[in-house]
Give the backbone structure.
Amino acid sequence: MVKLSAQDDQKLIQSIAQGDQAAFSQLIALYSKPLFALGYRMGYEQNQAEDLVQETLIKLWKHAEKWDETKGAAISTWLYRVMTNACLDDKRKKRMLALDNIAEPEDKQADAIQKLQQKELKQQMDQLLEKLPERQRAALILFHYEGFKQSEIADILETSVKSVESLLIRAKKQLRAALERKSHIL
């Protein structure tokens, strides 16, 4: 996760608001990969995740002059909020592909058995994540995969820290129960 100081955030957004393409290129370099990773973990194939990242970055470009530093949100928080909402909105439109259809990135250092085990574990986890309600899944991904603090997730999901705690607890309980059911079957 990329974080700039509040002062750097402010300078960058002001430059972008003035149409500074170099500043926008810097923002793209800083945030496109983490935003793509979020989209990918939310269940999108590469081209779909890239499209959502592009939409998110274009929104910042178009609305940079409306940036209100007095609200205290960092650029990263705003970008993750927009990206998360874009993912959730898209899923509501029923355009999501199943997580198990996503190609697994190749790990060139793992041997064949490790690759197989990692792939099976990822598929199982993806299947379990897919069954979680959307907001629980988003909170869990932002917390465990993206490394956000609960307060930052609350900003991204536009909810309270208590709600995020509750989403994480419920998600973990559901995952734990599903794993226990799977282990009893085996």
Observations:
- Residues 94-99 have pLDDT under 50 and may be disordered.
- The chain is about 70% helix and 0% strand.
